[in-house]
Write a structure and sequence with these properties.
It is built from two helices and no strands. By secondary structure, it is mainly alpha-helical.
Length: 168
């Protein structure tokens, strides 16, 4: 019997071996499939990273070109500005001209004031005379109105009396 058991035992192990071999093969195929899918994902990610890096570099280059143009325009503009030394010299001349004009204006105003004082005084005098005449006329009219009111004769108005009948 022991020989029979050995044969049965060997057959059982062979059967078990083939089952395990089938499972290992299935796992290997599954592993290779998942490994291939993972490689594809990694390659797609690398391509996306490379594409986004290229786009970012292009955008950065455009931004830097714009900054360079702006910087150049500032240099061109600064080249047209007047220097501080030239400005101070011209500013002093302008201040002197303004002072001369102010003095000239003051002299002209003083001369005009001397001539205008007489004219203004006469105009004021005429205006005062007119006001005085208007005031005198107003007082005269009000006195006349008061006199008329004082000497006014009262009118007698006859109002007939109603007859009262006597009742007997």
């Amino acid at each position: 019997m022991p020989d029979e058991l050995k044969v049965i035992d060997n057959q059982f192990h062979v059967k078990e071996f083939y089952e395990l071999k089938g499972q290992v093969t299935a796992f290997r195929e599954l592993f290779e499939f998942q490994l291939g899918a993972l490689r594809e994902i990694i390659e797609a990610n690398f391509k996306a990273i490379a594409l986004s890096t290229d786009k970012a570099l292009a955008a950065n280059d455009r931004r830097l070109e714009g900054m360079d143009e702006f910087r150049q325009s500032l240099k061109d503009q600064a080249a047209t500005f007047i220097t501080r030394k030239d400005f101070d010299a011209q500013h002093e001349r302008v201040k002197e001209d303004i002072q001369k004009l102010e003095i000239s204006r003051a002299e002209m105003d003083a001369k005009a004031d001397q001539k205008g004082v007489d004219t203004k005084f006469l105009a004021q005098q005429k205006s005062t005379n007119r006001l005085f005449i208007v005031a005198v006329v107003a007082i005269a009219i009000s006195l006349l109105a008061m006199a008329v009111d004082y000497f006014k004769v009262p009118k007698i108005v006859y109002v007939p009396q109603p007859k009262i009948e006597q009742t007997k």
